[in-house]
Amino acid sequence: MNEFILDRISEFIIRKFKGHDMEWLIEEILKAKGFTTYRSPEGANYCVDILASADTLGFGSPRICVQMKSTDGTVDRPTLDQLIGTMSNYNADYGLLISWSGIKSSVNKEIPKQFFKVRLWDSE
C-alpha cells in the first residue's frame, strides 16, 4: 500500500513540476528549511542549478550546491564527478544531486566515499 501511494505522489510531482518547475520546488523546500538561495537562470548551463546557504544573508554554512537532472535517463558517474568539481568551484561545503528518474549503480557505489559531502535525492 505504501509503495502504491509513493508511486502516485512521485507521478504527480513529475507531472506537475517538469523541468525548471522542479528547480523551483526544490528551491522552495530549501527556503522553507531556512536557506537563502540563488537559482541559475533558465536555459543557462552553469553546472549548478541552485546555491543555498543557511543564514539570512547567504554567507553562512553549510553552503550547498544543488544539481538537478529532470531527464528520463538515470544519473551516471560523470554527473556525480561534475557535481563534486562544481562544489569546489563554488566553495560549497556539500552537494545535493537530484534525479527523479533514478541513479545508476556506479553512482551508488561512490556514495560511501562521498558520504560526508554529497547526498542523492530520487523519487523515493
Q: Which labels suit this protein?
A:
124 residues; 38% helix; alpha/beta; globular; five-stranded mixed beta sheet
* Rounded Rg: 14 Å
Number of strand segments: 5
Q: Supply the number of helical segments.
A: 4
Main sheet properties: 5 strands, mixed
Describe the structure.
Strand 3 (63-69), helix 3 (77-89) and strand 4 (94-99) form a beta-alpha-beta unit. A 5-stranded mixed β-sheet has the order 1-2-3-4-5, sandwiched between helices. With 124 residues, the protein is an alpha/beta fold. The model has no long low-confidence stretch (mean pLDDT 87). It contains 4 helices and 5 strands, in the order H-H-E-E-E-H-E-H-E.
Helices and strands in order, then pairings?
Layout: H1 2-16, H2 20-32, E1 36-39, E2 50-53, E3 63-69, H3 77-89, E4 94-99, H4 105-110, E5 118-121
Parallel strand pairs: 3-4, 4-5
Antiparallel strand pairs: 1-2, 2-3
Task: Please provide a brief summary of the model.
With 124 residues, the chain is an alpha/beta fold. Helices cover 38% and strands 20% of the residues.
